[in-house]
Specification:
Elements: E1 5-12, E2 17-25, E3 36-44, H1 52-60, E4 65-74, E5 83-87
Parallel strand pairs: 1-4
Antiparallel strand pairs: 1-2, 2-3, 3-5
């Protein structure tokens, strides 16, 4: 079984750069056997891209990532981490 990691794009509004943001499952103890569980971000592509399109192209060029059309805003100052809900079954083959 192979799996993909859900990935969104983080827009640094300070530098106007776009960073892929990869998520990993981080289920709450109360999530049980549900398919939709909490995911936490792993970090972002350090260089970033000049455009949203270039960031999405990079994501789509990686077989282990699956793009979710979510654009998250980041002011470029605080730590750019996130928590989102994704389907586990959607990321497993």
């Amino acid at each position: 079984m192979s799996a993909t990691e859900p990935t969104t794009v983080l827009h640094n509004t300070k530098t106007d750069r776009y960073h892929p943001l990869v998520y990993r499952p981080a289920a709450r103890p109360s999530d049980g056997d549900e398919d939709i569980v909490r995911h936490r971000s792993r970090g972002h592509h350090t260089e970033g891209f000049n455009s949203l399109e270039a960031a999405v192209e990079w994501i789509n060029g990686n077989d282990n990532l699956k793009y979710h059309a979510v654009l998250e805003k980041w002011n470029g100052i605080e730590s750019p981490h996130g928590t989102m809900e994704f389907s586990l079954s959607e990321h497993q083959e």
